[in-house]
Design goal:
Blueprint (H helix, E strand, L loop, with lengths): L1 E6 L3 H9 L8 E7 L2 H11 L4 E5 L7 H11 L4 E6 L4 H9 L4 E4 L5 H48 L5 H4 L10 E8 L2 H8 L1 H18 L4 E4 L4 E6 L5 H16 L3 E8 L5 H12 L10 E3 L13 H7 L2 H16 L6 H16 L5 H12 L4 H20 L4 H19 L6 H7 L4 H12 L3 H19 L4 H8 L4 H12 L3 H8 L2
Length: about 500
């Protein structure tokens, strides 16, 4: 609402002005009426903001022109309406010169005329608000665009797509020193299994948007498949800064993150700082109970993995295989090998054991799962699971194709009957009595799509049907289609279809 004040030394005029308009109906709040300018000015100083001032010109103690000038100094956007008599036109002219919107004559005061004058003030306020909003939006857009350009320059430097010197002008705004943070989402496979691959992208976009809304300086953008990079100017208490950022993001998104960081003191050492932070973050693979890793100069992971030929040479029979695997698991725990090399070696062992024995697609899927493991504990679990399933495959090789078709048919029937309810890979795998991992591989091999993306497709199609043929509200459509979060549903629907649920209804409702 807009605040209005009336000032006139004649009580009957004040009463007439107050009763001429339904103030609340016009979104106006009449905060007071006063008999002279001094009283009104004191009230303004006490109560604060006034949007419309309606004041008599000739009054005792302080006249209307003086009040108007002082009030405009307090609030330059104030809209002033002068109330005058026939013989006060010189004062009216002075008032208009100093910014009064209009004037009304006491002798011819009519409610309709007064109402039009007040509407004129409201229109001017609204027009100024729109201009201010456009200017603010333009300023904000310019800031965002400049940040985006700097982001891209930093990213090109970090990924070595452009030498630092070629980007120097655009990175001048990145003052030094900087706290460089890398944030990785934990349990990414589980999140993608439950919500689909688009969910991660939506969450990363949301984190970036919130960071830029709440942070005047600094940068935040995705740098890899599962990583966000942050540049934070404060380097005095880096662990405190990281802790606060981590707690804030996890509270707002319900995600769990791992952070690693390094302090960069020179723009020419951006790449070095990025690699230091990245290397520190790799320690999470071995130390999964820790979630914040500062760069320390002693961190080295230089040991090379065994080659496929070396692995084949060391495997001779069941007993030597068990001894070999136990020795490798112990070696992996020593943290002297890069996680990517540990995963590579685990994949080589599977390949040495089962190449040309099980279906290539099955083996590749298992190796892919190993490569995406986040912790050593997860890797060893997946390795044992893959080994067991490959052994089972060899034991029942002749029956497998027929069994797999039956399992998939049973799974699809269950999915189509229950896709609007809570559903995960584990739910369906339990229903058809196979492991979650094997069901994931089986489903993708036969359907050529990830399980959860298939389910999301069914849910989006259901939402389209409801939007096109019912009058359910959008949040009701989300719930009926299997989405618990209407905000996520709306964003996902637009990502998949290109338009919002509301626009889809407008175009397709019958």
């Amino acid at each position: 609402m807009y605040n209005v004040m009336i000032v006139d030394d004649e009580p009957i005029i004040r009463f007439g002005l107050k009763s001429s308009i339904d103030w609340e109906d016009k979104n106006l709040d009449l905060i007071g009426d006063f008999s002279n300018g001094k009283q009104a000015l004191d009230a303004m100083e006490r109560t604060g903001h006034v949007d419309i001032l309606i004041t008599d010109i000739k009054m005792p103690v302080m006249d209307g022109i003086t009040l108007m000038k002082k009030a405009l100094q307090m609030n330059p956007k104030l809209k002033v309406v002068l109330v005058s008599s026939y013989n006060e036109f010189e004062y009216v002219r002075e008032g208009l010169t100093h910014g009064a919107v209009d004037y009304i004559l006491k002798q011819t005061l009519e409610p309709d005329q007064f109402s039009r004058t007040i509407h004129k003030c409201i229109d001017k306020i609204l027009e100024e608000e729109k201009v201010t909003e456009k200017l603010d939006h333009a300023e904000q857009t310019n800031k965002i665009n400049e940040r985006r350009r700097t982001e891209q320059s930093i990213k090109r430097v970090l990924l070595r797509k452009m030498p630092y010197q070629d980007c120097e002008q655009r990175i001048e705004s990145l003052y030094m020193p900087q706290l460089l943070l890398l944030g990785s989402i934990k349990e990414l496979d589980r999140i993608e299994d439950e919500f689909g691959y688009l969910y991660k992208n939506l969450i990363i976009e949301e984190i970036q948007e919130r960071f830029y809304r709440e942070t005047e300086s600094g940068y935040c953008f995705p740098i890899g498949e599962n990583e966000l990079i942050f540049f934070m100017g404060n380097t005095e208490e880096p662990r405190d800064t990281v802790n606060k950022l981590k707690e804030k993001i996890e509270k707002e998104t319900s995600l769990k993150l791992v952070f690693s960081y390094a302090v960069v003191s020179d723009r020419e050492k951006l790449v070095e700082g990025y690699h230091h932070a990245s290397l520190s973050g790799k320690q999470y693979f071995f130390q999964s109970n820790t979630e914040i890793f500062p760069y320390e100069r002693g961190v080295k992971m230089l040991r090379e993995p065994l080659s496929l030929e070396e692995i084949k040479a060391q495997i001779h029979g069941e007993e030597s295989l068990e001894n070999f695997l136990e020795a490798r698991f112990v070696r992996w725990k020593e943290e002297d090998m890069h996680p990517d090399n540990v995963k590579k070696e685990a994949g080589y062992i599977l390949k040495a054991l089962y190449w040309n024995k099980v279906e290539v697609s099955v083996l590749i899927d298992h190796m892919s799962n190993l490569a995406s493991s986040e912790t050593l504990e997860e890797l060893t679990g997946l390795f044992h699971e893959a080994k067991n399933e490959c052994d089972l495959f060899l034991e029942s090789e002749s029956k497998h194709p027929h069994m797999d078709n039956e399992l998939l048919d049973k799974a699809l029937s269950y999915i189509h009957d229950h896709f609007t309810q809570e559903m995960t890979l584990q739910h369906v795998a339990d229903h058809i009595h196979i492991s979650r991992n094997y069901f994931s591989i089986l489903f993708k091999r036969f359907m050529d799509i990830n399980f959860i993306d298939y389910v999301i497709g069914l849910r989006i199609n259901k939402a389209k049907e409801l939007l096109g043929h019912t009058s359910l509200k959008v949040y009701e459509v989300a719930g009926e289609s299997g989405f618990n979060d209407v905000k996520y549903f709306s964003k996902l629907f637009k990502k998949v279809t290109g338009i919002s649920p509301g626009d889809y209804r407008t175009e397709h409702h019958k």
